[in-house]
Design brief:
alpha/beta, 6-stranded parallel β-sheet, two-stranded antiparallel sheet, Rossmann fold, globular, 8 strands, about 180 residues
Length: about 180
């Protein structure tokens, strides 16, 4: 269901929303990458992903939160990266992203309040208006930021995904256990 624009939430209210999250959905270009696209002379596409973002996604998945991708473009690079990270729900070529979002949450049997979405541009607004925890990256378009309840400190492709994953794990009280497992190793 579409939500009217809300006033900024305090830290406590944001954490309460994050505690409910069972699915974190990412856009790709400008969120999991810095938005740059490199094409070589043969038309092959290259994207740069942050390794710590990827590790944050894996930690989040291990903590029981599902991760998905909804992106407007199609790229074999996205398929490859999603496969490496074990992201099974990947929706590409979504010119209009809301239908993919609605289909995804119906497929997984989730309510909108159990989802978080991270976007960076105006095409993301329909999902930002629906998700329980709408997030914009630090360098997102101003219109996208207006529809987010959380704005990351990190830019897209430079730690924003990790920041979101850690925020959710901390809100759920899972972070200390994850860190302790590394301390004891």
């Amino acid at each position: 269901m579409k939500r009217q624009r809300e006033k900024p939430l305090g830290a406590k209210a944001l954490k309460e929303r994050a505690r409910k999250v069972k699915l974190l959905i990412f856009d790709v270009d400008g969120v999991l990458t810095d938005g740059g696209i490199i094409l070589d002379g043969d038309g092959d596409e290259y994207k740069k992903f942050d390794v710590r973002d990827g590790h944050g996604i894996k930690l989040l998945q291990r903590s029981g939160v599902n991760v998905a991708i909804i992106t407007g473009r199609y790229s074999r690079v996205v398929e490859k990266r999603a496969g490496e990270l074990g992201i099974m729900e990947v929706y590409q070529r979504c010119i209009e992203k809301a239908p993919a979002y609605e289909a995804l949450i119906a497929k997984l049997g989730l309510s909108a309040e159990e989802t978080a979405y991270v976007g960076d541009d105006v095409v993301d607004i329909p999902i930002l208006r629906r998700a329980g925890l709408p997030v914009a990256v630090a360098d997102a378009h101003e219109e996208a930021k207006r529809h987010a309840l959380m704005i990351t400190k990190a830019k897209g492709g430079c730690g924003a995904a990790r920041e979101c994953a850690e925020f959710i794990m901390k809100a759920k009280g899972l972070w200390d256990g994850i860190i302790d497992s590394y301390r004891k190793a």
